[in-house]
User: Fold this.
Amino acid sequence: MNSQTSSARRAGATEHSSNTSTHTDQSLAERGNNRSRQPKNAAFRTFIGEDWGERPQGPARMRVADFTPQRRRKLAQLFPGERLVFPAGDLQVRSNDTDYRFRAHSAFAHLAGLGGELEPGAVLVLHPLTDASGKAADGSVPEETHEAVLYFHPRTSRSSEEFYADSRHGEFWVGARLSAEEMSHATGIKVSHIDGLRDALAKDVGQGSVQLRVIPQSDAQIEALVNEVRQQNGVTQHQSEADDRLAEAASELRLIKDEWEIEEMRHAVDVTYSGFDEIIKALPRAVGHWRGERVVEGAFFAKAREEGNGLGYDTIAASGNHANTLHWIDNDGPVREGDLILVDAGAEVDSLYTADITRTIPVNGKFNETQREVYEAVLEACEAALTQASVPGTRFRDVHDAAMKVIAKHLEQWGILPVSAEESLAEDGQYHRRWMPHGTSHHLGIDVHDCAQAKRELYDGAVLEPGMVFTIEPGLYFRADDLKVPERFRGIGVRIEDDVVITEHGAERISENIPRTVEDVEAWIERVQRG
Assistant:
């Protein structure tokens, strides 16, 4: 039996008792219930609802509930007099009547504080308390411009049919859901039943009155409902630009992390470190397996799932020349003695915040001379980028430029560049990018590529500020078939990636404890495998 729900069930279908006769007029959705029968008689319903013990005490107030009001306040102040809609999203079908594990839309999780696999189908709405000028009905200018309401499906009583027959919400199927009171206590947010969402969205909507915005690409059904409410209330103009602006603002809100978010990032890095320990333990078995990269991938996933919510993104376990495919996630190749294996992996903790770490590890525990030469060039680029990030007034793009100066210098020294390093670094040069084609940094947080909808001037062009969390991840990639590089380099790919937070004192590498120098990596392998 699979506890995940199907699209047919989500449409409201329940399993019905029936005679052995068939019904040729069944819809496809109804046929998903043909495999079993559910009692429907009144006596059974009475019987199954009787004699249950007291429910366990509900959840404590979540610590994040002390931080989400300020997040919502900052965002809502940008949209006075407008109703802002943040769907969690819903379950997505993986195969027939089984679904993918649920993960809420990042804007919803950030503003509501609900992580894990909680509350598919829920919607957070920020209802306006003022008009477009920021004034309340009495002419005052209140501190709070919006009221947050979380619309969700609370649990019903054990005497209801839902309790035993509804595989989407029923306690027998998915466990005890929170009551409205418990959800409000845990999140610090006013709650309401999801059935009232349509009327709540439609209140005062129309030309010259309340306007609606909804996060795009979050939940197709809720987005369709919002558009239907708009049309029914005379809002006929195209709304995609308005919705995109809300997505942009929600993304930019996360550029600066609060105290709680940074704590979660540190926790994600710690879990990820533990996952890399498991990778090193698994290397001997990986060498003997026909798909050793999968052994490495699986070792990390097990730890990420045990200690967190799972993976922040698909693990890259790229041995040998596979390391030169930047997004190698097939992970179906062998792991050979004498090769390097590049592992790019991050554990997502229950809050949905993820680490993003890359280590390039010698499979046999020791770098050879050529591998060490390439590795230490990349490591030097890492250090130059971190140093630059600590300089007051540094812009995000400057971190990349600092790393590229080092990369270009080494390529010139090796005789690989067709021009000088200085000429390559010019805008009309960039020859070094053949061997380092990706950016050196990206923001990190509740998404592995966080804040991706932010405007360029607030991302690439922004001055680094305390609370920003991002990666530093230069690399060198010498493909096995690249005839422009010396033969001894061919097939070697190296990337070193760390997670960094900007503090009042400069850039702090929060993954500092994960070994990264040649000597420390070799000692790490020996220590972990020795046990």
Notes: Residues 1 and 7 are 16 Å apart (CA to CA).
